[in-house]
Specification:
By secondary structure, the protein is of the alpha/beta class. It contains 20 helices and 14 strands. A hairpin with a 2-residue loop joins β7 and β8.
Length: 502
């Protein structure tokens, strides 16, 4: 990336929304501006896990302010992600539709493991180069990420649904600090993360690092009370716990270093970090300066390989895990991409980045048979379910859902993906994939000489597939399946025609 380029990362956390802006200087990122707003969206979900109107409005208002600051940035210079609260929220699509509009850039909801990868990436790139084995802990508002790694390479990543906001609402709903409430909260957090003991056993790491707001807030209080800066010790946590119990309530809490916006959630935060210390045998945790948004910047810089490379590797891992026929997936992918590209650069450019559309189509083709080991007749349905529920490094939840829609719709009736066909780019990707599957039905390279896919010049929703004279006589089964395919599209807003070339 050239010197002088601007980059920005937006982190929609459960407690705070953050915006990091900087410039690339001699290959390195230098921060020029940092904005943070305590939105506490993680506390704004009702009992049915829907974001309240107030929580959504607070989020939109914050993102509108961020959007004004990002005016003039290119799409390639900004990455925005949302974490646990929007992973959980049932009405997240309602929030995201307007949020994307006011911010001016796409917002991707990422999986817990993808969040963990980005956190480790941000932390490790801000630390000196070392071969030490690292444990990174990130305690957020509604989730806690644990990562093991060496250097800049993570080896184990997991996200647990326990955090400062969630635990404060659950165990300290009236803002009262009692010894019994802390004991119950700590035991509950330990129970959620109990399975982490074997993977993150003390024998498997040399140094522990803490990232994000909870660790920083606790560290600030300890430093203000005279404890050493730069780390958190078990003795320090014991001291802070006693101070909170003595204080008795949030309303009476007056401590140097304690920010006002942290008071209401400190009870949950101290309970979770104490559980992590006890479970993993941590005596001292160093405070890390990097975090999720720095991981996003690293992705934009390409310092750990492009996100496309990461996603391609994830696709390969999924294919291997589910014993997919790799050669056939590649064959279908090449044909599908070739058909899509025949629609013309002008058409694809109108729909977004042509290279990105082709790349995602190829990934879907590589995985279109991922569900075949479960069921032969309904493998597309099982494949879609697998992709909708898989944690794949480098992918956001929306990207995985798009792949699942392509896999679900690549065969059979189109009624099951009817709502998605209003997305023009997805409709054309799906059409190319379905045609490629048909042309490759014999599981060998098809004869594509003289095959052409084109859009009507008078109606954008009419697509024509032409073959050379005599092709249908030479490949009668393929021609039959293609004619049947025209019928499948008749019940959609799109029309497919198959014709012999003039």
């Amino acid at each position: 990336m050239q010197t002088g380029n601007r980059l920005a990362a937006v982190d929609l956390g459960s407690n705070s929304f953050r915006l990091e802006i900087g410039r690339v200087e001699h290959g390195a990122f230098r921060r020029t501006e940092y904005l943070k707003e305590t939105v506490r969206q993680g506390g704004g979900m009702d009992v049915e896990r829907n974001l309240t109107a107030e929580a959504m409005q607070d989020g939109w208002d914050c993102l509108a302010r961020f959007g004004e600051r990002l005016a003039g940035f290119k799409p390639s210079e900004v990455r925005a992600v949302a974490t646990q609260t929007l992973r959980e929220a049932r009405n997240r699509d309602v929030f995201l539709q307007r949020a994307t509009a006011v911010l001016g850039f796409p917002i991707n909801v990422i999986s817990g493991r993808e969040e963990a990868r980005l956190i480790y990436q941000g932390v490790s790139n801000m630390l000196p180069q070392s071969d030490e084995r690292r444990l990174v802990v990130d305690i957020g508002g509604r989730s806690t990420e644990l990562i093991l790694g060496q250097g800049i390479t993570p080896s184990a990543m997991e996200s647990y649904r326990v955090g400062s906001i969630a635990w404060s609402k659950r165990f300290f709903p009236d803002g009262l600090f009692t010894k019994r409430a802390f004991e119950i909260a700590e035991v509950a957090a330990t129970a959620v993360m109990d399975e982490a003991f074997d993977t993150y056993h003390p024998d498997k790491w040399d140094s522990a690092y803490g990232s994000a707001g909870t660790v920083g807030a606790i560290g600030d209080v300890l430093v203000a009370a005279g404890w050493p800066s730069g780390s958190i010790s078990q003795d320090g946590l014991d001291w802070l716990l006693e101070k909170l119990i003595t204080t008795q309530s949030v309303d009476r809490l007056r401590m140097a270093g304690m920010r006002e916006d942290r008071k209401a959630i400190i009870g949950g935060g101290i309970s979770v970090i104490r559980a992590v210390f006890k479970l993993l045998g941590i005596n001292s945790m160093q405070m890390a300066t990097g975090g999720l948004r720095h991981g996003l910047i690293c992705d934009l810089l390409g310092s750990t390989g492009s996100s496309g490379d990461l996603r391609s590797k994830s696709v390969g891992r999924l294919a291997a895990k589910f014993n997919v026929d790799v050669a056939h997936g590649e064959r279908v992918g090449k044909v599908a991409v070739a058909l899509l590209e025949q629609l013309g650069a002008a058409t694809l450019s109108d729909l977004g980045d042509p290279e990105r559309l082709a790349r995602k189509l190829h990934w879907a083709a590589r995985l279109h048979e991922i569900g075949s080991h479960i069921s032969h007749s309904d493998y597309h349905k099982h494949g879609a379910y697998i992709l909708d529920n898989a944690d794949a490094i480098g992918f956001s939840l929306s990207e995985m859902h798009r792949l699942s829609l392509l896999v679900l719709g690549h065969r059979g009736k189109l009624r099951k993906v009817e709502a998605a066909l209003s997305d023009e780019s997805l409709a054309l990707q799906l059409l190319a994939l379905r045609l490629a599957v048909i042309l490759c039905h014999a599981r060998r390279d098809p004869d594509l000489q003289g095959i052409a896919l084109e859009r009507s010049t008078t109606d954008d929703q009419v697509v024509r597939l032409r073959w050379r004279a005599g092709w249908d006589a030479r490949y009668p089964q393929s021609a039959h399946l293609l004619r049947e395919e025209t019928i499948a599209w008749q019940k959609t807003p799109w029309t497919l025609e198959v014709l012999e070339a003039n």
